[in-house]
């Protein structure tokens, strides 16, 4: 995050005189406490400053790169996950191809009658399913999908950095985000390479 001129001045004052109250900072800048409030809030939320009641603001010692790294390491999957695209495991390969095209996604998640995750279907799976003499309007995706226990999943409270590492290590395009209900893994989201890239871009902005 790029700080504006006034925020840089606030940081300099706090580094030199902290802990220092917001009123004292305002005095040194010849501004009102109300005028500084948004800047102090941004600096505190960004991790540059910390504040304690009846003590004031003090510098955390973190530089911008450290603040960014800290934020990246603390993003949860639940904060950035996108909507999963689900299909029944008896859906035909042809219908799955149409679904993937219309939803503009690279992975579909197959579920059973209990809405439990049973398989993952990638573009490569569908391509393989169209080869040979397969009647893609009749053959179900259950024939070509990746099944448990070979499915890599993540949970809403997992760190995004963990999900990113899983995508790299397993060389896959997405992870289903699941929650367990009565022994059933229900898909509530997905994390993709695009999801992670968007999260990093949002942080930088």
From TrEMBL:
Q: Does Transcription show up as a keyword for this record?
A: yes
Species name = Salinicoccus jeotgali
Protein name, please? Transcriptional regulator CcpN
Q: Domain named CBS: which ranges?
A: 80-136, 145-205
The family database entries (Gene3D superfamilies) matched by this protein are listed as: CBS-domain (3.10.580.10), Winged helix-like DNA-binding domain superfamily/Winged helix DNA-binding domain (1.10.10.10)
The UniProt keyword set, sorted, is: CBS domain, Lactose metabolism, Repeat, Transcription, Transcription regulation
Pfam families given in the database record: CBS, HTH_11
